[in-house]
Design brief:
1 helix; 70 residues; mainly alpha
Length: 70
């Protein structure tokens, strides 16, 4: 009876360790995904700024061309 109780306790500890490790791995994946999402958000912001600058530059070029022709 004592031996079975020890086996059961060892089994419970093993399951608890597996669950803990699984939780740690999941948390690590979530943190990595959040960092990746933040990088994508920062890249998107930079790309929007760059696109705006390009559009303004294009507008200046077009205005200059029409100004020279007129």
């Amino acid at each position: 009876m004592e031996e079975e109780a020890q086996k059961m306790m060892a089994l419970k500890k093993a399951y608890a360790e597996i669950i803990l490790n699984t939780s740690k791995e999941a948390a690590a994946r979530i943190m990595a995904s959040e960092r990746k999402a933040l990088r994508f958000q920062q890249d998107l912001c930079c790309l929007k700024d760059e696109a705006l600058r390009m559009l303004l530059r294009l507008r200046q070029m077009i205005d200059f061309q029409f100004g020279v022709r007129a």
